[in-house]
Amino acid sequence: MKEIIDIVAAYDEAHALGKKTALATVVLVEGSAYRRAGARMLITEDGQLTGAISGGCLEGDALRKARLVILQQQPLLVTYDTTDDDDAKLGVGLGCNGIIHILIEPITGDIDNPISLLKEIISNVRNAVLATVFSIKDRKTPQPGTCLCLTEDKLTVSHSGHLQYQVALVSDAERVLEEQRSEIRFYQADTEYTAFVEHIKPVISLVIVGAGNDAIPLTRIAAVLGWNITVIDGRPNYAVKQRFPFAQNIVTAKPADVLSHIKINDRTAIVMMTHNYNYEVALLKELLPTSLPYIGILGPKKKLERMLAEVKDAGISISEAQLNDIYGPVGLDIGAEGAEEIALSIMSEIKAVLSARQGYSLKYKPAPIHISNLQYLVK
Description:
By secondary structure, the protein is α/β, with parallel strands linked by helices. It has helices at about 1-15, 60-70, 115-125, 165-180, 215-225, 275-285, 300-315, 320-325, 340-355; strands at about 20-30, 40-45, 50, 75-80, 100-105, 130-135, 145-150, 155, 185-190, 190-200, 205-210, 230-235, 250, 270, 295, 325, 375-379. The longest helix is centred in the last third of the chain and has 17 residues, at about 340-355.
């Protein structure tokens, strides 16, 4: 999501300056590649790049092709085949042993273009679906490109007059939104079209309860990742913008009022680091019924055990599922020392939990690093 946000911001800036732009999207990957389907990059006519479609090996060639797209104002599907050992003949030297299909689209007009659909994704705070349609079989046929955005509240289809398979595409998008799993679909019209029907998760919301000095590096790392940051504390002289310039929301609140200041979904993580035991016990009682996917509590295990015992003594039952969502001591075991390293440990654990991963070294993973969650289905 951060890449989409950065691309939209870069487009708005370029558009204000009168610069022409194109959007490159990785739409299909066969085998191994540095970036997966859904990676995007905005290219301006003067060579400014925002986002990435590879580790840096494809960007130069994509820039050259994007300038052609901007000049001709026609989408172009580009394929990089690195399964040949002699991939140096491409001039990119990928060494990834995969086939990467990239669709480059010119951005024209203020509405009904890929950027306008990306803006709808950003404005949506829940799960969304974005569909990009292209033809590998006939590269000379018009490429519909990024043409559909579906949220829980709205459906937007651009270039609808050219989509002979619109009903099927909308139906597939609805299923992807429900199942929260991207799909590759195939449609037969005047030629065979492939659609990357992409499930896009909302931005992770990080709620930091505690505005001490050790919370500052946590907000900095979260800002780099593009997360939405809320800082809450009961002390008005601590919870101030000057101390947390990267936070979108800064709140002064008592434990009983915290929930009224935040929106909770399956991408919300809360970290308690107030160093105020009574505040955190009171807040834990408020949070337990909310089914948060991640509640992190800074401090030793004995502190958490004491908190849980006190909650139970107050007559509040704690289920096994609720216990599984509480992380204390907070963070991954990376040998962290100091506020910055502890922040890194916490952020890594949150990312692992929300991605349903274990957080171990990739060298011990028997399967490929990127296990595709795409379904390949024929219509």
